[in-house]
Fold each of these.
Amino acid sequence: MDTKKQFINGEWVLALSEQTREIINPFNQEVVAIAAEGNEEDAKLAIKAARDAFDRGEWSQTSATERGRIVHKIADLIERDKEELAEIESLDTGKTVEESRGDMDDIAGVFRYYAEIADKDGGEIIDSPIPNSISKVVKEPVGVCGQITPWNYPLLQASWKLAPALVTGNTLVMKPSEITPLTTVKVFELMEEAGVPNGVANLVLGAGNSVGQELSTNTDVDLISFTGGIQTGKRIMQAASVNVKKLALELGGKNPNVVFADADFDTAVDQALNAVFFHAGQICSAGTRLIVEESIHDEFVDALVKRVENIRLGSGFDEKTQMGPLISEEHLNKVVQYVEDGKKEGVTVATGGRRPESPELQDGFFYLPTVLTNCTTDMDVVQNEGFGPVITVEKFTSEEEAMKLANDSIYGLAGGVWTKDIAKAERCVAKMRMGTVWINEFNVYFPHAPWGGFKQSGIGRELGKSGLEEYQETKHILHNLDPQALNWF
Ligand SMILES: NC(=O)c1ccc[n+]([C@@H]2O[C@H](COP(=O)([O-])OP(=O)(O)OC[C@H]3O[C@@H](n4cnc5c(N)ncnc54)[C@H](O)[C@@H]3O)[C@@H](O)[C@H]2O)c1
Ligand SMILES: C[N+](C)(C)CC=O
């Protein structure tokens, strides 16, 4: 098995230490690849390559149209290799190949979206108080960007960072999650094929506390863009203060899904399932916190449980599978503990609440889709992100109470509201303190719409025009065409 290498200054290289890591298929624990395991020293080399490339200025001075052309080419190559990429993503994460194919379409779409808008902002002339002068505002790249991604949507989260950084003329060093690096390695091959110049995009593989820590603290890095857990985000924020790096943090969520009695019942049940059991709940915006009007609560839970018990678990490569395994044994143990703690807090396990017993699932990191009822907002199981196939159900009796519950969280990533009453829906979304709110919908994202969190779910936005601006500095230029002495001194 060839070792997956790092990409530094246009060269595919092993880790300086020659350390490697086994990449495991979470469905059966088979080793699917061996990857280089870089550390601080590899990260330093990559940062130097990115710094030198940025300071040479060739990429930032390449026209935005040309950078857009190269990024379009990356999208073309992702579409060409979609099936291979989808299969690698499923081997690495356990998600179904159908889900991975959807991810690959989204990813190509993100590269295309940013390629399209790359050359649409040539700056702005603004009014100047100085006679005979020109005052203009232009956007410039931030510089060297450190980019750190998680394991749940490995290539999708990478694309949200790579595409805007490249089209705006930055250079970068990316560190994917050490347990799911494979599709990111492949896309760096495609970026090389598309003609991204040497040193502009660098890839270091390895652990967060070595490679990630170096990216966060190294003073040659101007911006750090991180997607991952809240505790890691806080550590990165502290580390990044060393040279006041620009910071973009996409952190966790505990996302309320509020269902009023007047909602379309069957659609709300169906979407509540999708909101939490897709990708086994390992989604930052999963609707893990169901908040249902009391008058329909029992009927809603019954309908939910009936359908949850029919969810088919299995290999992501089996077309019949609806839900794959969790990412790792370590993560499975966290989900087990999360539910056990909930039981101690007094929740009722309406279904699930344990590992499956089928012999064919024993080698994988599976957990049964789980519905917990009798949940209240003061419980840890309601407040903490479990990041597994577990939904907690709370009740409310008034619109005011529903909104109070929905906002009772340190997180503010996303939420949904289900009702046929348009005025009520609008009143609710105006109160919901979240970066994305869906009305009669859940978990939809696309390249044009900004994504990010209120409160402790993060800082900054990815996607949309806002996602581009994270990678830009704003410069005001005043050009006096008729300079005069002031004779003040
Ligand atoms: N808001 C979003 O858009 C979004 C999207 C996907 C995932 N997430 C969040 O990600 C979390 C799950 O991902 P995870 O378990 O991989 O998160 P994590 O925080 O454990 O790891 C994320 C990345 O950070 C690296 N890292 C770990 N310690 C580090 C350190 N000290 N310095 C620098 N880097 C370090 C890891 O190696 C990995 O690459 C969940 O909380 C989920 O909600 C958020
Ligand atoms: C941002 N999203 C929804 C694609 C993945 C979150 O984990």
Note: The chain has a mean pLDDT of 98.
Amino acid sequence: MYSTFAAAAMLVRTILNEVQTLATQLIPQWLQVKILSIFGQFFTNPTTQMTLFIKEHANMELNELYQASEVYLSTRITSSIGQLQVSKAPREKSLSIKVNRGQQVLDTFRGMDLVWEFVTTETQQIIVNYEDMSGSNGKTEHKSVTVLNNYLPYVMETFKCMESEKRSVRLYAYGRPWGSINLDHPSTFDTLAMEPELKREIMEDLDRFVKRKDFYRRVGKAWKRGYLLYGPPGTGKSSLVAAMANYLKFDIYDLELASVQGNGGLRSLLTGTANRSIVVIEDIDCSAQLQDRGDAGYDHGSQNQVTLSGLLTFIDGLWSSCGDERIIVFTTNHKDRLDPALLRPGRMDMHIHMSYCSPNGFRILASNYLQIENHRLFDEIERLIKELEVTPAEIAEELMKGGDVDDVLEGLVGFLEKKREKQMELLDESGSGKDEGMETVETGSKGVEEKAEMEIVS
Ligand SMILES: Nc1ncnc2c1ncn2[C@@H]1O[C@H](COP(=O)(O)OP(=O)(O)OP(=O)(O)O)[C@@H](O)[C@H]1O
Ligand SMILES: [Mg+2]
């Protein structure tokens, strides 16, 4: 319950809010500050009202405090709030409830009343008002310090906890601005058909990365990590990215380089991504501009092209000065076609080779799709898999076909045998028997070690 005085103060505050909203739209910022301080003194003495403006973007970058505030306010929804935004995306499991623009949310912190308000101006912003009833006796500064040093960090902390607990990872596809959907990709490290050793190494690398904030600070390096995933189509590169995101609970930004307008566009796009995220650039070899680098310095690219040098400069430079816990992943089907500049030590921290399915990989897929750990046909299937270049995607497709387990596995054997015949025919046609494919069939295997490998570049 508010006292009469508090109710009057509330009215004044409402008037002030109107003035502020108008002021932020029409009047330069330095003048706003002056006007507000005069109004504040005039109307609210001895009560001193303080106002914080939290804009969606600050210096062209996403303002993390804005993001945090939006999430935090959804925890402060009470029956007194008249308007809420309610939505449910097809892939989301629960409703998303947000405070609507223009609505006020009341909060208290260490005996202080705070009033939050979403304001839509030219740029989205949130306003926090709080007042100090003892302003005349010099405690204003004390309360401001509390808000800045304790309350806002508490808002950030609440946001971080909620983010780490959230069950779904968001996938942002490049658009304007980044549009997001919930990533309901079931891929996890458990379901990935990869050599267990490689899987473990990647997970350990990720664990080490997220734990080493202080290390990165101490050695003066940007807290980022780059992975290059290479291998034929259907071997699980995109699935691995989803598994990494699900494992770390990082959001994914899927960047289509072809639609980015020049290095400037790239810069503003990437600075618009949040911390604790993975930026993925798929099929990097297919981006003509990136191969066509020539000797151009990084400022000389055409205005509408993203050059490799622009990209690399960004990776090297911009994330050093802003952004924490960033992961960048490039994928390619043809590592040999990449510009050597991208492969140099220090560019990508790990090169991960995703290759054809191995017997181990098959067992993981069988366990996922059929919930079986063994079967009389396993030996035969594994023998065929060792002889062939067959991708996990091809095997997964066979395992998804309906019927009972025997039917499905017999179908898979048939599929693998047909594939082997085709490969033999191709080899007969090529005649020489000296190409790599012949070697694969004759030796019976490319070697399990070769099928999934990883290099740590630095
Ligand atoms: N290693 C794997 N483990 C589990 N499933 C896999 C694996 N590789 C492929 N799959 C299955 O095949 C589908 C396609 O795989 P994915 O998109 O990850 O391949 P990719 O290597 O990214 O291919 P591309 O080079 O064409 O982008 C996945 O959705 C998944 O069902
Ligand atoms: Mg892919």
Note: Residues 265 and 425 are 49 Å apart (CA to CA).
